Amino acid sequence: MFNIFKQKEIYINAPFKGEIIQLQDVADQAFAQKMLGDGFAIIPEENILQSPVSGEIIQIFPTGHALGIKTKNDLEVLVHIGIDTVELAGQGFKKLVKQGEKVEVGRALIEFDLDYIKENSPSIATPVIITNMEKVKNMELLKTASVRAGEKVLKIILA
Length: 159
What we know:
single chain; Glucose Permease (Domain IIA); 8-stranded antiparallel beta sheet; 41% strand; globular; transport; PTS_EIIA_component; sugar transport
């Protein structure tokens, strides 16, 4: 009637073609132990990070290895390309957006050199996490194998 009983659903999409893995299988304790939030990780098979949600770029690291997006429902999504890639000091990353920019699902955000990252960091696993879990009532991982860019991976019911 007034949509008061309708649950708000948000989907987090695959930011590129790759293999979905559980967050606890990531070779970084901060991500694996969900210290920064919960979500999933993906092993990229492409070199362009696409937006997994529609929203606003609220943070893009100077090194270009990670960024944060806030949805219209105030869900904050962090995408971190590879593990310990901050140590690469921006080498191999090209930012395609700026902080404050509005983006839609599938928009190219960061171009990266996949081979360089494979050679110079512990892992190319890319965590995609919700950093403000207090906004989440429930989440369900929809895929656990190979996905195409833009496929729905995580279903979130907002609190």
